[in-house]
Design a protein that fits this description.
The protein is α+β, with helices and mostly antiparallel strands. The chain is built from 18 helices and eleven strands. The chain has helices spanning 8-15, 31-36, 84-89, 112-117, 133-145, 154-165, 174-185, 190-200, 202-206, 214-226, 230-237, 243-253, 257-274, 281-290, 297-311, 316-329, 335-338, 344-370, and strands at 2-6, 23-27, 40-41, 48-50, 57-60, 62-66, 74-78, 99-101, 106-107, 120-121, 151-152.
Length: 371
């Protein structure tokens, strides 16, 4: 039995990046041998085991054979005769198809180290076309590694275009599309994810509601600089999309509600945010109420960041609205006055108190500008 560290841990080690998790492949063993050694079986479709001490995943070396359309149409075969090279060959990119033995020896049968040095994302074998998820994964790795100068190899781009033309990406289930997109939104260059999908023709198939333009690309880039929160980046990306189209996209991909709500609010209110410094006290209060800022101040902060990314403005509008919310939220109505009110009159009293505070704040801001 031979054990090898494989995949992303090797890639990140050679790039000098931290490896958040490690995966292992076991060659020349059976499930029974691993279980006798104390490993706990967790794999459903193929044998994956958890190490009894570290809890890390150890998978038996395996082969995959295409049996049907889509990413689920595979038959998996494993046995002690499957070699490490055969296991690595079924992987997506050469930079993910390297292994290191327990003695430190690097196993690189498909040129992964060379492609790391040349900053290329290249497919391992023609079998790449059998799994449409790889289109999304390549785009996501491009978004992650773009800052290091990585690009998709021309021959891999051509394979991806062929997969789109042959309808392979149509078989992707919504949950998987969203999972990869959500992860890509958290990468250092999320706009590259969409660039790659656009280049191979997959964007129009997977996200038909999105109009990928220079403006939306710039908004997503700015959002990535302003906030590490994926929901802010998602909202900035869709800020110029019609609310109905956002709803359709979110329902189809089963996007979480917090992402959907933030995107819809940004699309509906971003034009008002762009003129926030021109609003009077009543206009500011109306905007805060429309954004439900008093009940959801944390979401309002995300909304301000998404709107700033969309407009490209400096920090002044965001800082002004954040200060306005903090001041107005502290408004109070005397207890003796509340005792004489009921129902909607109480809400009106608080609104009047908030408006009074915002008027004083606006007057103070005006005086400071004059001086």
């Amino acid at each position: 039995m031979q054990v090898y560290l494989v995949g992303g841990a090797i890639r990140d080690e050679l790039l000098g990046l931290p490896a958040p998790e490690r995966d292992w492949v076991v060659v020349g063993a059976t499930p029974e041998e691993l279980q006798r050694a104390g490993y706990r079986a967790v794999g459903r479709e193929f044998p994956v085991f958890l190490h009894p001490d570290s809890g890390e995943e150890y998978a038996l070396a395996r082969l995959e054979r295409k049996t049907g359309p889509g990413y689920r149409g595979f038959e998996t075969r494993f046995s002690p005769e499957v070699t490490l090279e055969q296991d690595l060959r079924r992987r997506d990119l050469t930079i993910n198809a390297m292994a290191r033995g327990l003695d430190g020896t690097l196993v690189d049968p498909y040129g992964g180290r060379r492609d790391l040095e040349q900053r290329l994302l290249r497919h391992v074998s023609p079998a790449f076309v059998e799994d449409p998820v790889r289109v999304l994964r390549v785009a996501r790795f491009a978004a992650r590694l773009a800052a290091l100068g990585f690009t998709v190899a021309p021959e891999t781009s051509e394979l991806m275009r062929r997969m789109v033309e042959q309808g392979e990406v149509n078989a992707l289930v919504p949950e998987r599309v969203w999972r990869e997109m959500q992860r890509a939104l958290g990468e250092s260059s999320p706009e590259v994810f969409l660039d790659v999908l656009q280049d191979c023709g997959a964007l129009a198939v997977l996200l038909p509601e999105l109009h990928w333009s220079t403006q939306s690309r710039s908004a997503l880039q700015r959002a990535a600089r302003i906030s590490a929160e994926p929901s802010v980046r998602f909202a900035a990306l869709l800020a110029d999309t019609a609310p109905q189209a956002i709803t359709i996209l979110c329902e189809r991909l089963r996007v979480p509600n917090d992402y959907r709500e933030l995107a819809l609010l940004t699309a509906r209110l971003q034009r008002q945010f762009s003129h926030a410094t021109e609003l009077d006290a009543a206009g500011v209060l109306q905007l805060l109420e429309a954004a439900d800022a008093f009940r959801r101040p944390e979401r309002f902060d995300l909304l301000l960041r998404a709107a700033q990314a969309r407009t490209g403005q400096d920090d002044e509008p965001r800082a002004m609205l954040a200060a306005a919310l903090a001041a107005a939220a502290a408004a109070a109505v005397p207890r003796e006055a509340l005792g004489q009110l009921s129902g909607p009159a109480i809400a009106d009293a608080y609104r009047a108190a908030r408006l009074e505070i915002l008027e004083r704040l606006a007057a103070l801001h005006s005086e400071r500008r004059k001086s």
